[in-house]
Amino acid sequence: MSNQFVVSVAVPVPLRKTFDYLPSPSAPDRAQYNAGKRCVVPVGRRLLTGVILGTHEAPQVSHDRLRPIEKILDPDNTIPNPVLSLCRWISDYYHAPIGEVLLNALPPLMRQQRTWVQLEASVSTTIWHASTKSAEAKRPRGSKQKLLLELLLQSTSGMEQKDIISQGYTSAQLRSLQEKGLIGSTQVRHFSPPQRDNTNKPRLSDEQQLALQELEDNGHTPSPTLLEGITGSGKTEVYLEWIENRLNTLPSGQILVLVPEIALTPQTLRRFRARFGGNVTCYHSGLNESERLLTWMQVKEGNTHVVVATRSGILLPFKNLCGIIVDEEHDSSFKQQDNARYHARDLAIIRGQQSRCPVILGSATPSFESMNNVADGRYRHIRLSSRISATPLPKVYLIDVKSRPLEGGISPPLLQEIKSTISAGEQVMIFINRRGFAPVIMCVDCGWIAECQSCDVRLTYHRRQNLLKCHHCEKQYRLPPKCPKCESANLKPIGAGTERTEEFLEQQFPDYPVIRIDRDAIQNKGALEQKLTPIRDGAPCLIVGTQMLAKGHDFPNLTTVAVLNADGGLFSSDFRGAEKTAQLLIQVAGRAGRREKAGRVFIQTQFPDHPLLQLIRQHDYQGIYTSEMEMRRQGHFPPVHSMALIRGEAATLEDTLNSLWQMRDLLEATQHSLPSIHGPFPSLIQKKQNRFHGLIWLFSPEKPSLRKFLKHWLHLMESQKPKLSSKFRWLLDVDPIDTL
């Protein structure tokens, strides 16, 4: 018994270890336990889906304490070796439980205890057809079966089962005819490829052609390239040409195109399918479970050659990956905020190295991390400095609103500019990064402000529903008829959100459509495309929106962009505040004047002399980077130093901070390259969903030393098990984006 092999299985539990199991009695052969297969295993009193990582003869405990695997779900290694290697890297670098990493790399249906046969059936349709002998065979007695057979004899290509059922026939009648040998069936995947249409393929400019040539010169090495192109410079067309040339050279190859948000997927998909037709598919959380599984299978089998995906696409099982593009690489949406907190942009670099394929990072406003990698010689750098329309970048005007009245968030000078644009038959985009009607409801008499009972935040008033909403926990409250503090009925909405601005513009411009685009207005599949279609058609209109509109969109007749409040990020306590503000404002400004007509951008601010706004006005992103990096060096912030943070939460702030202090004691007891430790201190928003949050920051000049330190510290945490508050929960975030 001691020589019997055991199976190492990764299970989706919050423990940084694998578990040993005996082989299943129904599958005693060691060859059946290849790494990458899914299986069902007992964990405590539950049965969970796990992933086999291999076999060995040295179990962690004695054989008599091991339990057997319940069932093997897959006939072969479902998760191929490149994805297994990437998941192991994620687990090691981000200190995430390997079982959670692996299961989250799979589409939702594969996390369930379904066999591969059951999974195939869930993405296939049954086609029924008459057998070759049915024409001469004796007809069945039942009139329904007879009619059904006649129906199938008339259909030369067969019929889908759902179409047969819709005509009043039953599954039992189909089975009966099949048992008699009169009909047969085949399983066909659900897939209807779009047609390719590259008749209007644009010609590259000289600058685009040079950029393409540089990218292709780098095509044989995994060295990442930062493609920095100003807004409207035609980065997407360079991507398309590069992909087409690459697939012509490698006909069986596959290209992954990562985009930061689902909102950008439809337009990107439309352009890519126009060029490559049925060779393009998409993968994101907005698809239903069957659609995600089908895409996963197509990618694994090599049946699709271009995949447009959000961050989870980096874990797809490509059969022959030959290139990765990360569009809008600066976007924080590429950072996963739950489970394994990986950054898809950084994983793209690792996957490119593992697959020995080129990686392109594209942006008009690159992350300071990528720009720093260029400065250090780790990335190549290609620039597109001209718009393809030959029009200059829009001129930026700063409107000082310190002493000006605002109505609907709009000052009189800005309203006049909007009127002149609309009168000229052009479009205006009004950017306001606040949903709802007003960010505050206040009692004018006593100063009471409506706040969430579960969070330390003010409630936003949504007038169309007449509700107060918390944008952190999504809790909703009815608007009180009077002040709960002084009983005055004089409650007033303060400030403007997208709803208020929309309402004001509808009053000012009754003859023109006002199109609002934010999370409240876009609540179902296809809603965004319905909103965008009239904008693309070019008729004069006013577009009110949040950062959903900030990047990627190309509206030919949009000439004026207005930013209603630019001041929120100017004095942020986040060390990335200036970087995020600059990226957002430059991206928003870049929507204006992308065709023949020149664009204009108006930014309302109370601080028109602020250095950051002056650099944005000059379109000097390099100057912003240079200035901010000097501050980062002085403060030892990323990307100069590496960073990790520990987030904790409990039922009281005292419990949270006490538990974090105990964790800090263990941090300081770790005998390995002690990093700089700051905290614990309360989070910027202390209370969320009735839980109190706190932080510890860790900084180190070297990534490897920080990783080793954290590994030693986690071992101490698991071995010494400090007595933390019973309801205290914590997580470790490596390379965090949200640091407050």
Explain what you see:
The relative contact order is 0.08. The strands form seven sheets. Strands 11-12-10-13-14-9-15 form a seven-stranded parallel sheet, with helices on both faces. A six-stranded parallel sheet has the order 16-26-25-17-24-23, sandwiched between helices. A five-stranded antiparallel sheet has the order 2-1-4-3-5. The protein has five domains: 114 residues, 3-Layer(aba) Sandwich (GIY-YIG endonuclease); 66 residues, Orthogonal Bundle (Arc Repressor Mutant, subunit A); 179 residues, P-loop containing nucleotide triphosphate hydrolases (Rossmann fold), CATH 3.40.50; 178 residues, Rossmann fold (3-Layer(aba) Sandwich), CATH 3.40.50; 93 residues, Alpha-Beta Plaits (2-Layer Sandwich), CATH 3.30.70. Helix 1 crosses helix 12, helix 5 crosses helix 7 and helix 8 packs across helix 9. The chain contains 21 helices and 30 strands. It is globular, with a radius of gyration of 29 Å. It is an alpha/beta fold.
Q: What are its keywords?
A:
Arc Repressor Mutant, subunit A, 740 residues, GIY-YIG endonuclease, globular
Question: What fold name goes in the CATH topology slot of the largest domain?
Answer: Rossmann fold
Indicate the structural class: alpha/beta
Number of strands: 30
Pick out the low-confidence regions.
none
- Kindly give the count of domains: 5
Task: Output mean pLDDT.
Answer: 91
Number of helices: 21
Q: Please outline the major beta sheet.
A: 7 strands, parallel
Assign the CATH superfamily of the largest domain.
P-loop containing nucleotide triphosphate hydrolases
> What is the CATH class designation of the largest domain?
Alpha Beta
What share of residues are in beta strands?
15-25%
Task: Tell me the distance between the termini.
Answer: 54 Å
Query: Can you tell me the CATH architecture of the largest domain?
Result: 3-Layer(aba) Sandwich
